[in-house]
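Our consortium's second objective concerns turning raw sequence data into structural hypotheses that experimental partners can test. To show how far this objective has progressed, the report includes one record in full. It was chosen at random from the queue rather than selected for favorable results. The single chain below, 429 residues long, was entered without modification.
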Amino acid sequence: MNGLKAAIIGAGSTYTPELIDGFIERRKSLNFEEIYLMDIDRARLDVIGGLAKRMLSAKGAGSQVVLTTDLDEAIKGADYIFAQIRAGGMQSRIRDEKIPLKYGLLGQETTGAGGFMNALRTVPVMLKIARRIEKLAPGAWLINFSNPSGIIAQALNDHTKVKTIGLCNNPVNMLAGIEKALGRRDFDYDYVGINHLSWITSVILDGKEMIQDLYSGGAVSMKNIPDLDFDRELLKAVPAIPCGYLSYYYLRDEQIKKCMEAEKSRGEICMELEAGLMEQYASQELHKKPEELSQRGGALYSTAAVSVADAIENDKNEHHVVNVVNNGSLPFLDDNDVAEVKCVVGKNGAAPVPVRAAQNEYIMGILKAVKAYERLAVKAAVNSCYTSALTALMAHPLVGDYRRAKAVLDDMLEQNREFVTLSAREGES
């Protein structure tokens, strides 16, 4: 097998040891001779890069690890590029979580008003990265884990020629939950949705539909979502297994109340977790990812990312749930809409598998509404357009109201003026 080059963009993330662990586990099938770790924060990069080198050395992996703050150096000639950036850093995430609460709106890093602000900061940065990939590594696969993953995937597919797949660990965790419930892995399934708005609508085991026996168990618990139970009548109304993020839609007022009453936002909790992790990472005695990393909310992160690269490189034609253009998989969305669906992944990338089960009207309706929001969010980010930004928030089911939408948008833009400037209309300078 020829040696490959991997680049991790945003390698100063505390998640990076998860990826390195995945590289180590699959080193026989993914021969990454070169691993470039790139981040704009040199201090964090040095700490995490040091741990990465110790992890690889402890397992006898011969990969050359290069630490760099130069994006072009990391990208040039790469075969696989893993992006996990956080534009604006953790402080911006905390503002995304707290500002909307002032207006009675959900504060969250990937959906609603907070997720929208994250998209405005992140989409332009990801497009710049993609343009460097087009020039310096046109054959590379960009595997993106940066949030909001679905909106970024939509922007990259609409506005670049980069070969890209959007990832989230949420589907992997949901399927792992089903495996645990059934005690078996040999089940088939239908997965319907867009990123952080998804359901498993069918589970087939030995030719028998198991979904009604399973969905009463509720959503898979996610570390960064305040737990709320789904009652029986709710689950009967939408008879499918919902991802944890559906609690923000099903139980919106309760989630807002929980966020308002919480002593700390999830971002503030993550900052504390990261401080402890970074202290551990700096220890020269540490040669593996610490158990505490699982508290950060990235369970099975490396499984999601590295297994997809493995499936492409070795033409495995495996099933993975990823974010790609719909191409008819969900008939109620446009073909060029990015959806989060089950795909066959091989050397040519991810090919969506058509969904078999008939769709619930609620699922179809809310997916179309949030996809319209995502399209408007991409338009606002790409064109730096205030009008599209306001329209996007008005379209989102978790915002909707004009006065709230305008107030929260103006407040968030003021607090993010270092990162985002919007014109009144498209093309206005």
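The partners drew two points from this record. Residues 76 and 136 are 5 Å apart (CA to CA). The mean pLDDT is 92. Both points have been shared with the crystallography group to help prioritize constructs.
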